[in-house]
Predict the structure.
Amino acid sequence: MQTVSTRADLGKAVSALKSGGKTLALVPTMGALHEGHMTLVRQARAHADRVAVSIFVNPLQFGAGEDLDAYPRRLAQDSRLLAEAGVDLLWTPGVADMYPEGFVTTVSVPGLDGVLCGAHRPGHFDGVATVVLKLFNQVRPDVALFGEKDWQQLTVIRRMARDLDLAFPSADAIIGVPTVRELDGLAMSSRNRYLTGIERARATVLNRAMRAAIGAILHGQPVGAVLEDLASALRDAGFDRIDYAELRKSETLEHLAHWDGGAARLLVAAHIGRTRLIDNMAIEPAMALVPEAAGAL
Ligand code: PAF
């Protein structure tokens, strides 16, 4: 695996990897890699001849008072994991390379970026969209892979790619990979490291409560009451604050007061101790036929 940390070296490395018409996949990350990231890396291999991973803790997507300084940074360990997984290129730009003096231009995706996490983390998705567009322009991948755990992020990036006619990658080549979970259902996240032992045990309620909510919606219970029960279950389990627990249309993130039988997502963000956990689960039209299957998610 080649590791590069300057734009000049990246340009040369990307040209070499793409030579002879080889296709290139990009997995953008902020490092502190876990099995969720490694699943993206393995899937990337199935979609392209060569695989590049970027590690960049992007200051633009952290608000004041958020965990930018505390965010885990484990480059040596990450680099070992990626090399073992057969990654071809690791791109590790510095903040000054990404945002040189005088940098002012940002990308925003209004409508998708002001709701859910965007309402609680103003400017977050501008930071995400901006850095992802820069990474796309720098690496020029044929495909890019993102975890569905950050469902809103995925919808923002897909819409940006579609609205701006991106070619490397095109909107269709932005691949969402289902959330990877711990055995007890907790969605894997670099931020799970912040949880204390007792918080980690309590956090398992999130998955159970979400599956119960999906089952109830499929059985026709009113969405408002189901979401209230979900919030109560989280509070009873010791969650300190719930930013949102909502049902939204999968692609447009339009709010759904009732499930209309179409593709929808149940999305939750809740705080336990100093950790903010997010998760989402799909409700697909076919699930209405066998609501009990929701329990097996
Ligand atoms: O999901 C992440 O790790 C980050 O938001 C991303 C997409 C790498 C942009 O910094």
The CA atoms of residues 19 and 258 lie 51 Å apart. The domain at 190-296 is CATH 3.30.1300.10 (Pantoate--beta-alanine Ligase; Chain: A,domain 2). The pocket of pantoate is lined by residues 28-30, 58, 61, 128, 131-132, 150, 153 (CB under 6 Å). The chain is about 35% helix and 20% strand.
